[in-house]
Structure formats: C-alpha cells, structure tokens
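In this supplementary section we document a worked example of the pipeline. Step one takes a protein sequence of length 262 as its only input; no multiple sequence alignment statistics are reported here. Step two produces a three-dimensional model, which step three serialises into structure tokens for compact storage. The input and output of this example are shown verbatim.
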Amino acid sequence: MKVDKRDLILESIIQAYLEVNEPIGSSELGIRMNVSIPASTIRVYFKKLSDEGAITQLHISGGRIPTFATMKLYWQDRLKFNSPINIINSDVLNFLVYDFGLYCMIFGVSKLVLSEVLNVENRFLILDFVGESIVLKYNPKVEKFLNNIIGISLEDLDKVSMQVGLSELRSKIKELKRNRIYFQENEKVAFEMFKDDRIKSILEPSFEHIFRTNLAFNPVFEPGFMGLKTDVIFEGKSAVMICAGSVYSDYEKFLTSIKEAA
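The serialised model returned by step three reads:
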C-alpha cells in the first residue's frame, strides 16, 4: 500500500507536538518517524503544508506546529465516542485533569420526569420528579401549562422553559442540576478560555446543550480551545463528562488513561 507522504508527515508533526509541546524541525521529525524520509523531502512538504495552512511557524528560524484548523480536523477524526467510559477512581481522574491541563465537570443524568404538579394553597407549585422536586411561586397560567406537559423529561423542560421565558423555572432547574454535579476540577482553565460572562455557563451542567455533537470548537470556544462531551459511569452512576482546554492537549491519551485506570 502506497504511503501518502503528506498525510504521514502532517500526522507525525501533530503527534510530536502533542508529545513535547515544542515546534519541530525537519531533521528532528525525520528521526522520530518510523518511515525513512530524507530531511530535504520533509522540508518540501513543510513548505506545501505551510502553504495549505495546515502547519505554521512561530519564529522564522523555528520549527513547525499544526494550526488550530488542523487540530480540529485531527480530533474530529481521531476521537470516537462509542460507549460510556467507566470511572471508578475520582483521585486518578483528578490527577489526570491537572496533568493534561483540562477543565472537567461530571454530572448525573439519571432521567428525571415531571410526574405531578402540586398546588399548595395557591401559594406555591411543587414540581415532583420522583425523588427530586422544584418549588415555584404560584401562578395559575404556569400551573395550567405544566399540567399539560406532565411526563416531560427534565432536559426537555429545561429547553421549553427557555423557549417560553419561564425564568424562575429555568433558574430552579439549573440549581437542581448543579446539585447533581459529581466532579468539577481545574476551573482555572475555564477562566483562561472565557474572559467574559460565558465563564458562568461552562461551570453549569446546562452547558452541555451548547454541544451539537460530542466535540465543540470555535465559536463555542475561543480559537485554540475546544471541548468534548461523553457519557460516563462515574463511581457506578450514569453521568455526562465535559472536558475542555487547548486544542493541543492530548485528549486521546487523556481518555485512554482514564480507561486504563478502570
């Protein structure tokens, strides 16, 4: 099978940068690669890849690094989310989060369904989710509306409350979800990614709604940053894990390390 030198060299640049986090030159890359390619040939491809916008040079005399766009395509191709990841030791996860420089949040997702709306003397409305509840100020229109959607999941109710402008309900749902956070570490990275009011959203479980797929890049995150969302079993409980950080963090190795620790 013929080896595509362009793809091979680009992937080697990416993997080298993920490993050492330093720009790499043609001679060093040639030493690292399993396939024997002359440094002069590698330099030709460096030029081609630079012209394509796949790699860039931070300094005139320095080596090359992959661009943000290249890393986005790389992670979209490499990361697979087929089944929940089993996490049995939060101490190990805590170490890995800081070791890889990532922000991480895990929250419970056991399906909550609105089973009943109780009217307490026209003063309060109690929304019963079987094991969890939300208390609202009484409003006859809200009571009628909620009784018409008995059986709706908490997730769908969250979306509906945003669509119809029920701010108190949405606030209470957010509070309920926050109480279901099992793990949250390295918020410093979150502050590095968002330097405006968006920082509040990434610290809440409702941030998962921003993800259209398991991966999110710009414009959800600033250029150079990304996030991933995946199902996990956290200490025996069904949950969702959101991790975020630089596009140059080794997410594949991070996830593999979690699986190996299980």
